[in-house]
Every structure is written in structure tokens, then in C-alpha cells.
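To make this tangible, this section ends with a sequence with its C-alpha cells:
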Amino acid sequence: MIRVLLVDDQALIRAGFRALIEAEDDLSVVAEAANGVEAVALAARHRPDVALVDIQMPVLDGIEATRRIAADPSLAATRVVILTNYGIDEHVYAGLRAGATGFLVKDTEPADLLHGIRVAARGDALLSPAITRRLISEYTSRLPRAGRAATLDVLTNREREVMALAARGLSNDDIAARMVISVATAKTHVSRAMTKLHARDRAQLVVLAYETGLVTPTP
């Protein structure tokens, strides 16, 4: 059972999400929060698999709530998905930097929302290949060069190669086919790269690939 925390200051939206989620056999809502402070406290109490977090909220906004959840060692298994009304914008970039696994637009189709929760619970980045390329390209184009100084010396050549392919939006299956290795091996390389670089999940690994200059944005 995938356990979900709903975080939104609008009760009607939370009620709609709850009804949709709890109609599924493999999903359940463990708690609801109306602001970021409540979100952090309820996350610590219930340790959900996925937290759906709105950006604009009173008391403490969704970005800071995401940062605090991601920084809590006891919540290492909790994946935060940012909810936004605006699609790709500055808030999404900030959310990914704060530790979010990905983002969903609030008016997304119900089936896509449910799929997104399941994807996030698996620890995968909630970004399609096309969205990944656009998002990260736009994000990194705003970074000063000094912001890309992190080192990749701890990685093997294979791990760097896999990291670069992941940053281009390839799935583990795609990476395995490209490198002529098994899917399990591709997944292992991705996991080791995340561990060595202290990346919370695949989304942060992708961001690091661009920040360090391993991959450069394409026009």
C-alpha cells in the first residue's frame, strides 16, 4: 500500500485528491495538511511514501516544507511531489533543488495523477524525457558557472556514462539498450551514482549532471 500525505491550503482540493486516491486499491491517504508547518510535522509522524505538496501556502510555503522533509534522515524514503498551477516555472526549479522528486500540474488528468504517485513511490523522477530535457535545460541556463563546481571524481567511467544518459531523459531500460548491459546493471549504476553523490533520487542526479557540466543543455 502506497501511503500519501496531502498538503494544500484549500480543503476542496484536498477532498478531491483524497476521493481519487482512496478509490484505488493500492493507495491510501494517511494525513492532510493545510500549510507547510503541518506538512513537516505530519510527515514526521506518519512517514508517508509520497507527499503531494502545494507550493503557495500560508505559514510555511511548499518549497521550504519540501526542504525540511528532504533534510530529515527519518524521512529518507518519503518522496515529495510538488503541485503547481503554472507548469514549469521558478517554483519548480526551487522545488527540485529543495529535494522534490518531481512535479505535477494541479489540473492534470486523474489517471496521470495516480500514475505520478506510483512513479514517485518507486523512487523514479516524475518527469517525462521531454519534460526532463526542457526543465533542466531552462533551469541550468539560469545558473552561474560557479554553481557547477561539484566534483564527479568519485564516480567510475561507467557511472558517469549512465548518469549522463539519465540526464538526457533515458529510462533504465533505454540505458541498458544503449550500453548493451542488463536493466539490473543499469539500475545498479544509477543507484551507486546517487549514493556517491548523495543525491536523494533520480531527479537530483539529473540536476547534478547539468550543474557539474557532465551534460550541457541542448537548444
Remarks:
- The radius of gyration is 17 Å.
- Residues 145-149 have pLDDT under 50 and may be disordered.
- Residues 183-196 form the longest helix (14 residues).
